[in-house]
Amino acid sequence: GAVVSQHPSRVICKSGTSVKIECRSLDFQATTMFWYRQFPKKSLMLMATSNEGSKATYEQGVEKDKFLINHASLTLSTLTVTSAHPEDSSFYICSASNRVIGEAFFGQGTRLTVV
Amino acid sequence: AQTVTQSQPEMSVQEAETVTLSCTYDTSENNYYLFWYKQPPSRQMILVIRQEAYKQQNATENRFSVNFQKAAKSFSLKISDSQLGDTAMYFCAFMKPLANSNSGYALNFGKGTSLLVTP
Predict the structure, then answer these.
(1) With an 8 Å Cβ cutoff, are B91 and A44 in contact?
(2) C-alpha distances in angstroms, B81 versus A19, A74, A76, B13, B64?
(3) A32, A46, A95 ranked by CB distance to B103: nearest
(4) Confidence bin at B1 (pLDDT 50/70/90)
């Protein structure tokens, strides 16, 4: 299957700082990327869907100004957690797809810990 | 909006036995995809099986097969000859092209079923 690389896999940051997570599709053009947040032993909560060249569509309850999503190219999307707080600590996962593939491929996830 | 329902939060099966995980979904669309993903303790999402809605034949991948009932909007996963390595969270997912986009998709997940395979 196609490869999606998410970086970093783990990050610890101080409260009030910003953290950027990258999601790259390595061998296909990802016209659509999804960002999820997952709490322990819970399902994936969709945060936003981004289509290349367009603004991300955020799910209800997700703060656009706090979770900045950029999908400027067909192989890269970034999620920036701004002014992070301990409650933002979580596991974040990206996935990428396009209509030709008709399938979503997932990154390895990022464990964010805000101290 | 599309919803995906997995009614079994936890299941257990003995090694070598067969287990079926249920999934129902709600949509008015005719063209869509259905998936089962596995998430082991590593938390990497792994695609188990994929089904296009226009295909009547149930998808099969080795020990994994689905029972796709389009009219009933049901998409259950059967795991045959269960192995210890099958222990994981299993998520049912629904994906459809966005109507107002040339390239976009919507992808929704169920809440997951935690499967434990015991010796």
Answers:
(1) yes
(2) 44, 41, 40, 10, 9
(3) A32
(4) low
